[in-house]
Amino acid sequence: MSIDYAAFRRELEEFARKSCPPEIRAVVAAGQKVTKREYQAWQKILNARGWGAPGWPREAGGTGWDIKQRLVFEEVMAQNDCPPLYHHGLGHIGPVIIRFGTPEQKARFLPRILDGSDWYCQGYSEPGSGSDLASLQTSARRDGDEYVINGQKIWTSHAHEANMIYMLVRTSKEAKKQDGISLLLVPMDARGVTVRPIRSIDGWHHLNEVFFDEVRVRADNLLGEEGKGWTCAKYLLERERLPPANVARLELLRRQVTRVVDDAAQAAAGRRDFSTLRHKLLQCEADVKGARVLMAHATDDLIQQRPLGVQPSVIKMICGECAQRLTTIALDAVGPQAAHRFLADAGEDVPSATWIQNYMFTRSRTIAGGTAEVQRNVIANELLGAA
Question: Which of 111, 148, 154, 252 has a 20 to 30 Å separation from 337 between CA atoms?
């Protein structure tokens, strides 16, 4: 059956305008930090409409949309200042459960991701195990029908908001390091879990360190086979940079910065020349469109089970660097006095201070999830061959 994409777009536009609460759209439009409150409320609305997981197959509770429908969805939602989909559940661990989970695990975990009941964070990085993730040391020993976990995770985004963590643990030290790793789903309220905040330079709270002291979790919370978690991890990491929501976030940012430049130009009333900033915005717009095309090709390759090659690295690098350029444009538009007000504890209520925070936050985009230097090495090795 052929799909009327124009009618589909109109349906999405009407839904976004009527169903996304104004208070949520205001947070997004202003470039403020989107928290669990906004994400979760929007997820419940989408799920009630049957659109809770645009990238999942129908049999798992998703929409079953084709790639063009998914891209149109992300584009329309961004154009109407709706929050992007929360990635940890829908884009990361959800697909892993669909691929590696037992029927019982799918029945237990997937509906709670769809309706927003379970809110996940990722327990991968450890002190000394960032780029070399396979060197992780957090352990899990089998004790009857449970695993007992000891160790530490760091740079854990949203751990202070999450009620679940999907985490890599070492269940064996006998095999080579990749073969001794397993993937567990762990409730954050389990006895022995401690979350401590890590305050970042932007003044927002995203990051945490998480400690596990004799934490017990059901053995049937193991995804895949014991000792074969590295297979699950690679499957997740390959998809981590590919959900269309990644480009949707970039499109949202571009729209927000365009508003900032327009508002600043209007406030300046001809006293400042904004032509250079507008030219830089056009260049960023071209990059956003290019990233969308790359995302469409890569997602289609995933669906058709073709090798992705370096596409995830290219997309990650483009999105990170473009986000940094966009927030630099916004900061140039609001002017240097914004920094003074921010440092004088203006806080998030002052619009110009919000763009200081956005600027600071996007400095991490070329570090978190694999540095730009690592991505360039991956791309060079693939295209030119290892030296």
Answer: 252
